[in-house]
Amino acid sequence: MEIAARTTFLFLFVNLILARRAIVSGAVTLNVGVILDLQSLVGKMARTSILMAMEDFYVVHRNYTTKIVLHIRDSNADSVQAASEAVDLLENYNVRAIIGPQKSSEATFVSDLGNKSQVPVISFTATSPTLSSGFVPYFLRATLSDVAQVNCIAALIKGYGWREVVPIYEDTDYGRGIIPYLVDALQEFGASIPYRSAIPVSASHDQIEQELYKLMTMQTRVYIVHMSSSIASTLFTKAKELGMMSEMYAWIVTDGITNIINSLNSSILDAMNGALGVKFYVPKSKELDDFAERWNKRFKQDYPNDSLSQLGTFGLWGYDTIWALAQAAEKVSMVDDISHKQRHRRNSTCFGIMGASAIGPKLLDEILHIKFRGLSGDFDLENRQLQPSIFQIINVVGQGSQEIGFWTAKHGIIRQLDQNGSETTNVNSMPDLSPVIWPGELHVVPKGWQIPTYGKKFRVGVRTSGYPEFMRVERDPITNATTATGYAIDVFEEVLKRLPYAVPYEYVALDNADSRSYNDFVYQVHLGVYDAAIGDITIRYNRTSYADFTLPYTESGVAMIVPVKDDTSKNAWVFLKPLTTDLWFGSIAFFIYTGVVIWLLERRINNAELTGSFFRQLGIAIYFSFFADRERVDSILSRLVVIVWVFVLLVITSSYTANLSSILTVQQLQPTETDVHELIKKGEYVGYHNGSYVGDLLEELGFDRRKIRAYETSDDFADALSRGSKMGGIAAVIHEVPYIKIFLSKHCKGYTMVGPIYKSEGFGFAFPKRSPMVNDFSRKILSITEGDAIIQIEKKWIGDQHACQNDGSIASPSSLNFKSFSGLFLVTGVASTLALLIALVMFLYKNKHRIRNSISRVQTQGGYGSEHADRQNQERELDYNQAQSMQVIVPNDPEDGTCQQEIEISTEFTSPGSEVQPSPVFASRETPDNSLFRIHP
């Protein structure tokens, strides 16, 4: 114990003395370890960039008092070797920072060592998301996490409309780390991953070839390659040999390969021709061009036997990392650089006694606060890794690559960086990219999937329907082959003819079809027994949870089949049915109102017809409303009212006559039932097809389960309907519309369809979830149903739809209601009211002087003196004396001659101031409209 304590104290004392001497002499050093795979292209590229960064930095910063010293080690692509080298650097070389290691699997263990010894570990090549700084705070990523590129890849998948992709990745921490994030991003855009191809690092050429053969047996033709360049080279070479770099295929490579794409061998680039790639975008600058030129010369000097390589993004990140570390080292005092080690020390590689760096926390803090503009762009490790900004999308063409666009989190996929932010990609349009040359040197976007032309055929599930017109399945006893015919089969085969590609298929019959429901039939697709299920399969909500359906190829809905009855017996009050109650009362109200208006207008001009009592005059006025052609109306306003009313009356009577005729003649045949809810109230029996979901639907609608009967064939339905609900049969059949058409084609007379009473989506074909064939089949079904093909198929299997007069929806003729004629009533009401107002205005205008005199007399009687009253009485007496006798001579009608009749009007007056008692005596006859009045005093 004492010896160990003395040794530890001596070691610390020596380090302190050496540090102080270095400060005094002005030559302070900071040891930095570098762990790279020096046999790989990335390792060689990074080593050249790091050495050049050391030289360039201290040429620019000659006045710096702290200089970092690099100790470069080779990991030989082995995680254990990388860890061993890290321990050696920490224990024997007293490094205060480690750059690297190169691979994510190596960085996992080395970052733990750095965390234990408080030595920052900075990797510019380990991109796996599993390396989280939350668990190892001394690990810094001077590059981007693989998570940053998944949204760019997903945007490409979305833009080109691909629904399924297969990731091909190396089976390491680096390869597996991106998969969960890629799955999430694709699901957000509506795409999925049906299969994951993991290739071991140690896989031989034969193993890679076998995996590619496996991929060729699948439908998906879009692949995302995420692996190191060494494995990717073999993969693409084999893919080209197997014909997978041809039309119908699409390949996307991640930035691990794209960053060094221009440094790959020409034969590998030729194999990758047509692939897309994404990589971190490095802005162009003069400094970058000058450095790239110097780097190419230096790399050729360092590795004269290697093929000429071009500077990649990893080399730029390595260069900027050295500059950031050198700046941070200058800001850290090396006086306190003492490692606190445990007292027991057995050997130089013992993890348990590893010391903790005194300047490690300070150095880490300074690195996190370093921000500058480097060759790779903005260098900022504040969040312990570089922040994603822009990704570049390239297309491998010939012996190199060409830029076709960019991706940003704000704008999505764009062709140029200066484009307006509103120009983003979407699922319904191609991404805004330059033209792409796809595998096979094609310019047409691959559809992303293909039916394999070898191996198993496309298995199509079929089953015999309760209506053989839709599907009949038979098995050949000699060849044991399954054959199917029917309406659904013709539609399916017509779709196959219209597809732009061939689909080798075979029909597979459902086992024990008689005892299995259609839900079980569709579920076989989910289990993988069939690649598709066709037939009279109703598209229902519960079935969409385990299968995808095409658009329906038949009409939708659930309706009733009911008998028809001869409705020839009419009751005594049938004449009231054409009009509703509100229309009857509304018409009567307007009859009366129009008559009153005419009476008021004619009364004003003393129409000779309006004599006698009040009710007699009102009756005559209303009579004018019906028979204006026989009776005379004198006022022009009355005539206008009558014209409008006659027009309204004509429309109402014509409509009444037409509707009454329809009730009495056209509608001889009536359905016995028109409302499904009336069937429930009456407790009637109803029928449905055995095995159909309609049975459950009837219970949901409220039918008693005991009132529901199942039948097998259309003849069974006809027999049950003919007997009726009270005779052991049924009152109605609740069925889907396509089946009803078949029933009516056989039993046209005596039955009809009422409804639909319930909405359904019709019949469709079932495919596995997210099957790429659903969209193609749906589009072709639309082209069939919108054209003449579906009509010919219906005629073949169902018959002529117009042959049966009862076929179709029948409903009772609706009575005409008040709302139907509200516009007409509004017109006549406005016309009558307006005429009445005009007459009132004319009356007030003609009698304005009398009205004024009356008003003045009222005012005089209420407030004037006796003198003024006497004067008024004198004037009144004079007027009475002058009007003692008047004679009115009225000329007769010119047709009656020129004789005239005198009307003597004698009036007896009382003395002035007393009540006036006029006693008019009339002796007249009918006065024509052109009467002339002459007054003789």
Structure summary:
It is built from 28 helices and 31 strands. By secondary structure, the protein is α/β, with parallel strands linked by helices.
Describe the structure.
With 937 residues, the protein is an alpha/beta fold. It contains 28 helices and 31 strands. The strands form 7 sheets. An 8-stranded mixed beta sheet has the order 7-6-8-9-10-13-14-15, with helices on both faces. Strands 22, 23, 24, 25, 26 and 27 form a 6-stranded mixed beta sheet that branches. Strands 2-1-3-4-5 form a 5-stranded parallel beta sheet, with helices on both faces.
Question: Topology, pairings included?
Answer:
Blueprint: H1 2-25, E1 28-36, H2 41-60, E2 66-74, H3 79-92, E3 97-99, H4 104-117, E4 121-123, E5 139-141, H5 147-159, E6 166-170, H6 173-177, H7 179-188, E7 197-199, H8 205-216, E8 222-226, H9 229-241, E9 250-253, H10 255-258, H11 266-271, E10 276-280, H12 286-302, H13 313-330, H14 360-368, E11 371-374, E12 377-380, E13 390-397, E14 400-408, E15 412-414, E16 458-462, E17 472-475, E18 482-485, H15 487-498, E19 505-509, H16 518-527, E20 532-538, E21 548-549, E22 558-566, H17 581-604, H18 614-626, H19 636-666, E23 669-671, H20 676-682, E24 686-689, H21 694-701, E25 708-711, H22 714-723, E26 732-736, H23 737-746, E27 751-758, E28 763-767, H24 773-785, H25 789-797, H26 822-846, H27 848-863, H28 866-882, E29 885-891, E30 900-906, E31 934-936
Parallel strand pairs: 1-2, 1-3, 3-4, 4-5, 6-7, 6-8, 8-9, 9-10, 16-19, 16-20, 24-25, 24-26
Antiparallel strand pairs: 10-13, 11-12, 13-14, 14-15, 17-18, 20-28, 21-28, 22-23, 22-26, 22-27, 29-30, 29-31
Helix pairs in contact: 2-12, 2-13, 3-4, 5-7, 8-9, 13-14, 15-24, 17-18, 17-19, 17-26, 19-26
Function: Glutamate-gated receptor that probably acts as non-selective cation channel.
Region (Disordered): 904-937
Signal peptide: 1-19
